[in-house]
Each structure stands twice: as structure tokens, then as C-alpha cells.
Amino acid sequence: MTFQTKFPQGFLWGGATSANQVEGAYNLGGKGLSTADVVEFVEPEDRTSMKIPFPSIDEINHILKTDENRVFPKRFGIDFYHNYKEDIALLKELGFKTFRISIGWARIFPNGTETEPNEEGLAFYDRVFDEMKKHGIEPLVTLSHYEIPLHLSKEYGGFYSREVVDYFAHYAKTVFHRYKDKVKYWITFNEINSLLMAPYIGTGLVRDFVPEEKLLEAKYQAAHHQLVANAKAIKACHEIIPDAQIGCMVIGMINYPMSPHPEDAFAAHQDMHKTFFFTDVFTRGAYPSYMKRFFAENDIHVNMEIGDEKLLRDNTVDYIPFSYYMSGVSARPEEGGEKAGGNLLSNLKNPYLDASDWGWQIDPIGLRTLLNMFHERYEKPLFIVENGLGAFDKVEEDGSIHDPYRMDYLRSHIEQMKEAIGDGVDLWGYTTWGPIDLVSFSTSEMSKRYGFIYVDQDDYGNGSLKRSKKDSFYWYQKVIASNGEDLA
Q1: What does UniProt give as the signal peptide span (predicted)?
Q2: What is the domain extent for residue 269?
Q3: Fewest CB within a 10 Å sphere: which of 174, 253, 377, 432?
């Protein structure tokens, strides 16, 4: 018996971006401020550590009053707002089948509380989706990608407050009605499990709304509200766009035990719950029993309204979109060890793995493992909507950019995706992170580049914004054209 290790016909190859990392034009077209617009660039002392803001309202107001002498890269992005036609044409040349973008919520509802949407914002995304259609590219659209209207954060503490659930539902229904004939693939929240480590970025929570000793409870309250908002959006999407596919995204992370010690193995098992709690709820439709014990042991009381459990149960995802960048190592609390750099769910350093310039541990086999874990646990279609290598790129005197390290990284992960398909995993597509250089989420810098397309801009927004093709552009073009068969 032979096993299929080829990508299926119709596999959705492409790339992924977010509004706050590429669009710019933060004060044009009627857009309001978002939580991302007050995250400033600070010259890094250590590139392997993340800058995770958790401001107070006073700190946000101070930033807004003194912002003339500061740099806010997510306000200017790479000016996709004015360059989307050129950029989408380049993605067409790459051979993209799909392009993942996000809608800036504050571009549609500047404060988040309005009854009527901002027509200029809606019209902008009409133009973007029409341009994609013109080039035969399927939109994959995220509703909230690490930003919400800043007003909702300052007034309500973001998703910590129940009111924001209905504001999100109104926003979701608005864009579903507007783009029902243009968008069939939707994602509600980007990396929803990130809120456990970054509550401001993930949910809009600011320090004023909760005392420090109750922060863990507040995170799970915000998580519940986001999960309810996710269910409401799924319900609306299925009613408004019956043939749509909608999912909720998580950071895909696997954890290995530091040793064969049973307590290390159980620590790894528990760390996996940082992902599985969310996927269990939005895929199976109910809170898992292990979280009920966790809440009891940590004196966490999550307020649920009548009808929430039924809403979660009746409105589960059609597919599971997730990011994958690295794996982690877990150990007993008393065991020490060198910390790994990396994304929000990073743990101890793994001596068997290489790492990127930013300390992210490179583990392609971990992707195959995670794909199988998701498949066996849920038996739902999967979609890798982020994967990539952030690295320093050098522009040669002749303008060429040689990035074999990026091709090596992506090749090794694509090979493991093929193996997972051979294992029986139902994998719909693969969108690499940042196909065109963009502002880094974690460090707000341009120096950390992911793209096949180079953008002439530095960390402070200086540069011509000229787009240039790297060596990896032609490599990925060949990968897509061969449906993943030619990886040389």
C-alpha cells in the first residue's frame, strides 16, 4: 500500500499579512486609532526578547500627547494603502492562489461603537478584494489581527468587558454583508491564545480595569468574551454567507519534555493546554474538564451569561487555521534552564535545534507532529496561515538579495507538510508570513524581514518604499507552480 505524499489539487498556496503591519495611512480615509497605533519602536537591546506592552490609560494618553518625538511603525507600515495594486500584482507573479489580509476594525468603525460604518473604509477593502479577483487570488480575511479600536480599549478594557462582544458582532455582520460576494474564507481572531501572554495586544485590556492579583482571572474573562464573540461571528457568517468557511486561529505550538522524567512530560502536557483550551472550545463547543480544574485551583471565576454555553456548542469552526514558527521545551517548576527566544509561547531552549537571529527555535518536524495532533484530536480541515523566518537581509551592490536561509527554512517545513498529508492530515493551504517585508509584530522593526519581496524602508520609516524581488521570490514561484513538488 502506498501513501499520498503530494499536495492535493486546489491546494491554497499564498502568503499572509495584517492591516496594522502593512497598510499605513493610519489617519486617512476616516480611520480611527487602533491599539496597534500607540505601540512605538524602541531600539532593541536584545533581539531575542519581545516587547509586550501592557499600558494604562494614562500612559496611552501621554503617548498620544507626546507622539511627535516618537516612532510608531505600525502607523506607516509599508504603505500598502497606496501601493496595494503594485503589491497584489507581485503576488500574482509569484503565483499566489490566496492572500491572507486583515481588515482594520478601526477603519470600518473608528471608535468601535458607531451604528453606521465608515464608507471610505469599506470602499478601500472593496478595491483590494476587486484587485485580488482581477488577478485570480482568493482572499483569506481576518477580522481582528492584534488590534481593536483604541476607544474600546480605553473605555471598556477591550474584550474584558461584555459590551465589546456585541460591538464585534456588529462589525462582523457589517463586513459579512458587504463582502459576501467577494470573500469565502474568514478568520475571526488572530492567534487567540496569545491573550494569555499579551492581553493588551490580544484583547485590548489595559491595566486600569483589573488589579494585578486578578490579572489571570481577567485574561480568562476576556478569553471567554472572545470565544463568545467568535461563536456569534460564526453564526452570522453561516447565515449571511452560507457557502463561506470560517475559523478561529491559534498560535500552533508543541512542547517537548526536558527529560524523560514523568513530571517533565506532564509539564509539557499542561503547556499544550495553552493551545488546546481554545481549540477545544471553538472546535468541540464546550469548556474542557481540565480547565474547570485549573479555574478551581487558581481561584478563577469566569462570568458566563445564560445562553453562552449553547452559543458555543451550536457554532463551531469549519476549519482550524494556525501559525507555526517554533516548538518549546517544558520542565518541572524547580528545574532551571536557558530560556529560548521566540514567540509568545516560547519556553526553555532545545539543544537539538538551531535558532533564527531572533532566537526562534527551528523545528520542521514539530510542524508535522502538530498537524497530526490537531488532525487526530479534531478531524477538522487544517490551514497553516503563518509560517516563516524573520532574518536580516543584505542588498548587494547590484540590487540583488540572496536569502538561501529563508528558502532552507521554508523548504524544510513544506517537506514536513507533505509527510503530514501522507499521514492522512486534511490540509487546505499554506500562507507564509510576510511575503512582502512588513513591520514586525513583536519588535515593531523593519530589520526583521520575512518577505520574498524586499521593501526599501528602515526601522524609522526612512526609505523609498521600492519593492525588489529576493532570490526566494523565484524559488517560491517555482514551488507554487509545481504544487509543492519542486523544492530545489
Answers
A1: none
A2: 12-481
A3: 377
| The pLDDT of residue 333 | 81
The three cell numbers of residue 197 are 501572554
CA angle 326, 293, 313 (to 5 degrees): 80
In a domain, 186, yes or no: yes
Q: What digits encode the pLDDT tens for the residues 305-352?
A: 999 999 999 999 999 999 999 999 999 886 666 666 555 655 788 999
What's the pLDDT tens digit per position in 388-404? Answer: 999 999 999 999 999 99
C-alpha distances in Å from residue 423, one per residue of 368, 376, 414: 9, 10, 14
CATH number for the domain that contains residue 223: 3.20.20.80
The verdict on residue 486 lying in a domain is: no
Report the pLDDT value the prediction gives residue 4, as an integer from 0 to 100: 65
* Catalytic residue IDs: 386
Sequence-ordered list of residues with C-beta below 8 angstroms from that of 360, at least 6 positions apart, any chain? 325, 326, 340, 341, 342, 343, 346, 390
Q: How many CB atoms lie within 10 A of CB 234?
A: 25
Measured torsion, CA atoms of residues 50, 55, 61, 62, in degrees rounded to the nearest 10:
-60
Domain count, the chain: 1
Do 428 and 382 contact (CB within 8 A), yes or no?
yes
Determine the residue type at 321: P
Instruction: State CA 390 to chain mean position distance.
Output: 15
Question: Residue 162 falls within a domain, yes or no?
Answer: yes
231 located within any domain: yes
Identify the CA nearest to 125 among candidates 191, 31, 189. Answer: 31
How many CB atoms lie under 10 A from the CB of residue 154?
21
Strand 255-257 relative to strand 328-330, pairing: parallel
